[in-house]
Design brief:
single chain, 177 residues, mainly alpha, 6 helices
Length: 177
């Protein structure tokens, strides 16, 4: 049964489908934001363009969180209203885990900065040759571990989404309005 023939469609009307279309378009814009941020991060190393590198990393994480939230909203709507999608459990778990890791990055960076080592933070030599006996070093290591775990966990998110798309068998139920 196509969405426009589904009883829920008659209840909610084309307004719901247009809302899903808007969410889908917003997720496309976030995907473009993720791609351009990754390109910027790769082209501006931390030692050469620190501010631009960190800004791009923040934009990438922010856009990825919004993208995942949009995917969760779309999947939940398709599941709860039309019964043509499975619940987005793995994506939801990823979002909660990633938010926790990002909180760890910010928390450990703030704690690390309280030890006074941030005075030379913009100095490349100080950043690359931070000794383990300096105050705040282990907080910085914990922050870096959270950051890289978060970056690598994005592969899990995209694997979950690609699996969902590969397993989706109800394309015939989607109508273009």
């Amino acid at each position: 049964m196509k969405i426009c023939q589904h009883p829920q469609y008659k209840l909610y009307g084309p307004k719901l489908v247009k809302h899903l279309d808007l969410l889908n378009f917003a997720s496309l814009l976030m995907a473009f934001g993720i791609v351009f941020s990754i390109i910027s991060i790769g082209n501006f190393r931390c030692s050469e363009g620190f501010i631009f590198h960190v800004t791009s990393a923040f934009c990438m994480f922010f856009a990825t969180f919004i993208y995942a939230a949009l995917m969760i909203a779309i999947c939940r709507t398709l599941y709860s209203r039309f019964d043509i999608e499975s619940p987005p459990t793995t994506v939801t778990v990823w979002l909660v885990t990633a938010a926790t890791l990002l909180l760890g990055v910010f928390t450990f960076n703030v704690i690390s900065s309280q030890f006074g080592v941030m005075d030379g933070f913009f100095d490349e030599h100080t950043n690359l040759h931070w000794r383990s006996d300096q105050p705040g070093y282990w907080w910085h290591v914990a922050s870096a571990a959270c950051e890289w775990t978060l970056v690598n966990s994005m592969a899990v998110l995209f694997a979950c989404l690609s699996r969902r798309m590969a397993n989706f068998k109800n394309w015939d139920k989607i109508d273009d309005l």
